[in-house]
Specification:
five-stranded antiparallel sheet, Immunoglobulin-like, mainly beta
């Protein structure tokens, strides 16, 4: 006769225990583990993919990647997307060389509890510095066609090196539309023609005072310029065939190395167009 009472007591104990376990599981914040950034040491041409494993039995409201590029600056928030095996991913875009980046991950669950990585964030962040890329980016950045027809102020072309490294353009061919569409020889740039990173190089097209035997003038009614590497591949060009540059104006890219082209009433020879 005592067995039913014993059974009821066991069931009540199990229910109480189950309730305690349930409360213990669901009351806390989400777990965040296995945070990884790839690549760990990015180049200026590389974005960084940040991933982490996030678990919460009640449900996740948001998983965000927050990064900044200036100490004490404003964070940019990237919503991390869910993938397989409870892994969330977010991307920090490619940034210029030597940029110092700090980031952290923030998870909020349905009860409003927050988990961060690293645990001391945002007072302490995961940090990295963007390194140099070996990708070469050259641009015909500005042209001036209305020169003085003597050595005092000849026609000129500005080449901009938007790479993170110096670029040696010795042996590159340099020519205009008139040379391209004829049998005339192309100018081959002299040994030691090196453009520093984010730097400019000026080539006068005429009146080079013996530096080059091949000289040519640029047409104020329209022309084009080409820079060709040693393999015969066009490394940079600028088409201004329909642009009138009479009146001491120049034509080029603003900002430097961009696809936005404009006429400059005041040329910026050897300097930034920005």
């Amino acid at each position: 006769m005592k067995l039913p009472y014993l059974f009821i007591a066991i069931m009540m104990s199990a229910t109480i225990f189950s309730s305690c376990v349930k409360d213990e599981i669901f009351d806390g914040p989400a777990s965040l583990s296995d945070a990884v950034a790839i690549p760990a040491a990015p180049k200026s041409t590389e974005s960084v993919n940040v991933s982490a494993k996030v678990l919460d039995l009640q449900g996740i409201t948001s998983v965000n990647l927050l990064y900044r590029t200036v100490a004490g600056g404003v964070f940019t928030t990237v919503s991390m997307t869910a993938g397989t095996n409870y892994t969330y991913q977010g991307t920090i875009p490619a940034l210029p060389k030597d940029t110092k980046v700090g980031y952290y991950i923030e998870v909020k669950n349905v009860t409003g509890k927050i988990t961060v990585y690293p645990a001391e964030a945002p007072s302490k962040l995961v940090e990295y510095t963007v390194g140099a890329s070996n990708v070469i980016k050259l641009f015909i950045n500005e042209v001036f066609a209305d020169g003085s027809k003597d050595a005092s102020n000849p026609d000129w072309v500005e080449i901009y090196n938007d790479s993170d490294i110096p670029v040696d353009i010795s042996g590159y061919a340099f020519y205009d539309e008139g040379i391209k569409t004829s049998a005339k020889p192309k100018r081959i740039l002299n040994t030691g023609t090196i453009i520093p990173s984010k730097g400019f190089h000026i080539e006068s097209t005429e009146f080079t005072e013996g530096k080059y035997t091949i000289e040519f003038g640029l047409s104020t009614s329209g022309d084009a310029m080409y820079l060709e590497d040693k393999s015969g591949v066009i490394a940079a060009s600028l088409d201004f065939l329909t642009i009138n540059l009479s009146g001491k104006k120049s034509y080029g890219r603003k900002p430097d190395g961009s696809s936005t082209l404009t006429i400059f009433d005041t040329p910026t020879k050897g300097k930034s167009n920005n």
